Amino acid sequence: MQAEAGAGAGAAAAAPSRDERQWAMLAHLSAMLMYCTVIGGFIAPLVIWLLKRDEMPFVADQGRETLNFQITTLLALIAGGCLMLVLIGFVIVPAVLLFHFVVTIIATVRVSEGVWYRYPICWRVIR
Prior knowledge:
Layout: H1 9-13, H2 18-29, H3 40-52, H4 57-82, H5 89-112
């Protein structure tokens, strides 16, 4: 799907190798560590991105994308936590967590197919 290819014209032309797809899948799936350890959902994708970004363009792009999504999710959870004082946060936090879970699974599946995936709601801080 060309609409999801946001890495540039050169990146969309090169199909990622099997190893690149597996590392990118691992970067997305490791974000699920957020449910076990809050910081683990950020650290694991960061380590994968730092280790593989120079040798695998697909992993560099997808690692950066998942890191940006983790930052966005963390900020949304902090905002939801603060809004618990006025009760709306009790709706926002579970909604953000459900959204994170579903979209991360979708990202993992799409990346396994070699798609340069973009999260639908994501503040792209890391460029």
